Write a sequence for this structure.
């Protein structure tokens, strides 16, 4: 491991603010490789405006989750060290999530994500930490991450009723004032980790360049049955079942599965810790 980690700062940030940012957690060359893979595999190029219309107008997420370049990031020892600090154990698995690619906003394109929770924050049996790696810089006003730490810390602001949609339940807070939200600008290679109790979303991209991130989270290992499913889906080139409702995420990725290192095989559940 080469990156020093301030354990107290990590735990304090997640507890008090609901999120942390680790600067330069991923080399820019690895981030650029993911952008190039999105271009080669999906014909969506960061520097070709005519290709941006290939991003779904329903949700600005692109169906790339098992590419070798993504595993090259997942297998970084520094990332594992950060997530081990978050969870207090090195025995972790990694998710096989995809990327968000947000072109500059215009009518007809997917709009900013409203503030939401991905898991019911009132469920005391759940504890998750979510994360993303910035593949492009996202200065203020350019489609980046925003959140409401004050709402996270006030259970009275958590609604008792939730909207139901065709793909599940929408966990959204009641009206939140603009003065209660903060935007978190990121540079290429920065890692953002946040507690799932933190209401979060994005801002509209009012810049002139796309904003792209790679969703990445690690979590404590599961059961042998869950490991078998992870391995089978990886070998088959298919997304986890809970993501397949998203546009394009029901496809089979072309080519053989990524070659995993010893670290990658442990993170998938293929080998024990």
């Amino acid at each position: 491991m080469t990156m020093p980690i301030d354990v107290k700062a990590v735990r304090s940030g997640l507890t008090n603010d609901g999120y942390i940012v680790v600067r330069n957690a991923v080399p820019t060359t690895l981030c650029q490789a993911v952008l190039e893979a999105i271009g080669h595999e999906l014909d969506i190029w960061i520097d070709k405006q005519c290709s941006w219309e290939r991003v779904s107008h329903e949700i600005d997420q692109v169906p790339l989750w098992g590419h070798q370049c993504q595993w090259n990031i997942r297998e970084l020892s520094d990332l594992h060290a950060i997530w081990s600090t978050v969870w207090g154990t090195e025995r972790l698995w990694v998710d096989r999530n995809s990327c968000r690619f947000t072109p500059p906003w215009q009518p007809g394109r997917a709009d900013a994500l409203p503030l939401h929770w991905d898991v019911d924050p009132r469920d005391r049996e759940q504890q998750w930490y979510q994360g993303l790696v910035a593949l492009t810089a996202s200065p203020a006003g350019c489609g980046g991450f925003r959140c409401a730490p004050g709402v996270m810390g006030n259970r009275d602001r958590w609604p008792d009723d939730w909207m139901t949609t065709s793909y599940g339940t929408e966990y959204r807070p009641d009206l939140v004032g603009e003065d209660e939200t903060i935007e978190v600008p990121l540079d290429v290679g920065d890692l953002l980790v946040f507690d799932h109790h933190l209401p979060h979303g994005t801002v509209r991209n009012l810049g002139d360049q796309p904003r792209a991130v790679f969703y990445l989270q690690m979590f404590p290992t599961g059961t042998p049955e869950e490991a078998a499913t992870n391995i089978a889906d990886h070998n088959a080139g298919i997304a986890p079942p809970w993501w397949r409702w998203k546009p394009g995420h029901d496809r089979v990725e072309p080519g053989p599965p990524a070659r995993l290192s010893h670290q990658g095989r442990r993170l998938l559940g293929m080998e024990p810790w």
